[in-house]
Amino acid sequence: MFTNEKFQQSLRLPRLAQPIPTVMTNRAEPVEVLDEDALTAMTQAWFDEYEQKIDFYAGHGLDIAWTLEWAKKYWWSWQTRDMSYNHELYTDDLRYKDVTTLGATMVGLDEFVAYNFAFFDAIPDWRYDPIPGQCYIDLTADGEVRIVVRYYGSGHLVGPLKLHPYGKDAVAIPGNGAFIQCAAVDRYHFNAEHLMYEGETLYDLLDGVQLAGIVPGPSTTAFKWLMRGAGLATRAVTRLNRSAVRGRAILPR
């Protein structure tokens, strides 16, 4: 049985491998890093703030108190890498998208767990920390609850980070051991049984790989040459595709 004490214990549990930088510089402007104490305080503040939201909605005749336990259980599962409560969080036919699915939709808990562990394997010290003041709740006329949360993802990209479908032969972003901390947005849709049946994670993948140093920073000469090379490659592929289309058009029937 999940308890609030489990949540509190995981909140106090250090996750990040040390050391971590104080500033990340491989961006258009320096990005200050939040250390583990700051992240933990931020997450606690988010949950305290969320309880106030519940009280506010209750004052208007809307009961969303169950979402607090759901959020704690969900956060705990990511913090502890424990998927044993999945059937209390998601429908069996959950549909989910992530930047790493490259446009595909995951269907079912098996695919969702494979996606979770693709991150855990690549970033063993991964933290998920929601940002206070950046949680948005939508309630439909028929009682459906939808939530959008902005948060920080932090950890060391030991890698490789597999892309969909996350199997043994999956294409992957190489790991280099660098520390990353970047913002992301999650969208959750819940059914009448208080289970998430649809969701999505959105973030700036270019921002992440630049912070990790896998791709040069935007102000560097190397990045400008990289983009110039990508442009040349794109034009070459476009010409080849056009030639192939024209070739098919004149083939005898």
Quick structural gist:
The protein has 253 residues and is α+β, with helices and mostly antiparallel strands.
Strand order of the largest sheet: 4-3-10-9-6-5
* Share of residues in strands: 25-35%
Q: Name the helix and strand elements from N-terminus to C-terminus, one letter apiece.
A: HEEHHEEHEEEEEEHH
Q: Average pLDDT, to the nearest integer?
A: 93
Straight-line distance between termini: 68 Å
Structural class based on helices, strands and sheet pairing: alpha+beta
Provide a count of the helices: 6
Bin the helical content: 25-40%
- Total strand count, please? 10
Biggest beta sheet attributes: 6 strands, mixed
- The radius of gyration is 21 Å
Unreliable segments (pLDDT under 50, ≥5 consecutive)? Answer: none
Shape: globular
Structure, explained:
The chain is of the alpha+beta class and 253 residues long. The strands form three sheets. The chain has a six-stranded mixed β-sheet. It has a two-stranded antiparallel sheet with strand order 1-2. Strands 7-8 form a two-stranded antiparallel ribbon. It is globular, with a radius of gyration of 21 Å. The N and C termini lie far apart (68 Å). 23% of the residues are buried.
